[in-house]
Specification:
single chain, alpha/beta, Aspartate Aminotransferase, domain 1, Aspartate Aminotransferase, domain 2, 7-stranded mixed beta sheet, 4-stranded mixed beta sheet, 15 helices, 14 strands, 40% helix, globular, binds pyridoxal-5'-phosphate, Glutamate-1-semialdehyde 2,1-aminomutase, glutamate-1-semialdehyde 2,1-aminomutase activity, pyridoxal phosphate, isomerase, porphyrin biosynthesis
Length: 433
Amino acid sequence: MIHNRSQEAFEKAQKFIPGGVNSPVRAFRSVERSYPIFIKKAKGNRLWDEDGNEYMDYLGSWGPMILGHNNERVLAAVKECLEDGSSFGLPTSMEVELAELIVNSVPSIEMVRLTTSGTEATMAAVRVARAYTKKNKILKFEGCYHGHSDSLLVKAGSGLLTEGYQDSNGITAGVTSDTLTLPFGDLDKVRELVAADKEIACIIVEPVPANMGLMKTAKEYLQGLREICDSEGIVLIFDEVISGFRLALGGAQEYYGIEADITTLGKIIGGGYPVGAFGGKREIMEMIAPLGDVYHAGTLSGNPISVRAGYETLTMLRDNPSIYTELEEKVDYLTGEIEKAAAEEGVDLVINKLGSLYTIYFTAAEKIENLEDVMATDTSKYITFFNTMLEEGIIVSPSKFEAHIMSIAHTKEDLERTIAAARKAFKVIAEQG
Ligand SMILES: Cc1ncc(COP(=O)(O)O)c(C=O)c1O
C-alpha cells in the first residue's frame, strides 16, 4: 500500500502539533510505524486515507460509531441542524429531548447534565460525589481510564499504557495522594481499603473495562462494589463512556442488573460529535449549579449538532433493540473463527469479548483478567497482527491495550474477509516463531 500523502502530512504535522497528533495513540508509535495513516473520509464501516486507500474499520472512532460512519439518518438530521446555527450559548428543546431519552434508557439516571467530552463528565462526577459525601478521596482501578483530568490520571489505562507509563507528569502530589488505586477484580482488597480509610468519597469504575484491552467483569464483582458503597456511604460511579448504549440501551448496568449512583456517558450519545454526560440520583444531581454550589459549565455543553446527532442515534438504538443481539452474534462468529484459525496456525491467543467489543491477546495463558495479565501478553505478536491487518486493508486497534469495536455496518462478507486476513497474520506470526 502506498502512503505518500499520509507520510507528507505527518512530516508537516510534527512541526505544528506535538507528536503530530491530537491524541497520542493515533501516532501509531506503539505498532512501530514511523507515521500514522491520515484519514480523509468515512462511510459505514469503511475509512479512506489521503492516498485513496480503503480500510475496513474496527475502531469506530474509539466507540461512537455503533451505527457506522455517517449513518444516513444521523447525517440528514445534522445537515438540517447546521442550517439553524451551531451554538447559541442558550438552551434548546432538543437538549431536553436527549436528556429525557437518556433518563428513560438508563434506570439509575434521574437527572443528567451534558458536557463536551467524557473527560469533563468524569471530572464533574467526581466533584459532585465529593460534595455529596463531604469526603475527599477517590478509589479507581489499575488500567481503567476515565479521561485526562488530573485526579483520574493515576494508574490509568488507554494511551498511557500504550505510551508505556500510567501516571502523567505535571500533576501535583497533593492531587494524586487523594486518588487511591487497586487492581481490578479483587473485592477483598476493596473491603480492606474502605475499612482502613473512611475518607473515600467515591469508587469510580469502568463496569466493563475496555482501556487495558477488554475485561469480562463478573456480575458478583459489580454487586460487591454496590454493597460496599451502600454500607460505607460511598458514591458508586460507573464510567460508561464506552459501555453506555453499547452493551445495551441502559449500558453495563442494564446488562448486569446493577445500578450506579452516578453514571458517566460519552461517545455514542453524541453520534460521532463531541459530547459527554453525567447523571444519577436526583438528590446528588441537584447539588449542581445553579441549584447548588457544585460548579459545572461549558461553552459548547449541549451544543445543538452533537445533541441532534446523539438523539437520532439513541432513537435508532431504542427503536431497534435487535441491534444489540445482532452485534453480539457478529462478534461471537468473528472471534470464534479467529480462535479456530489461530489454533490451526499454531498461535496461542485469548480473546475477551462482550457484546460488540473484543480484544485479542497473544498469550499462552488461559485467561486475561486484569492489568497484570495484559502486561504479560506478547506485544511484538500484536504489532505483527496490526501491521498485517493494515496491509490487508483492515484497521484494528493500534495498541494491545484497546478494544476492537463492531458496528452494524459490518456485513457477513466483511467478517469473512477479516477472518482470512487474521489467518494470514497468524501465519506470519507462526513463521516469526
Ligand atoms: C471509559 C472512558 N471514560 C472516559 C473517557 C474520556 O472521554 P473523552 O475522550 O471524550 O474525553 C474515555 C475515552 O476513551 C473512556 O474510554
